[in-house]
Amino acid sequence: MYAVIRTYLGVGARQLFEFLEERNADIEATLRTVPGLVSYTLLNTGDGGTSVTVCTDKTGSDASLKVARDWIQKNASHIRANPPIVTEGPVIVQIK
Question: How does pLDDT run across 40-61, given as a tens digit for each residue?
Answer without folding.
Answer: 999 999 999 999 999 999 999 9
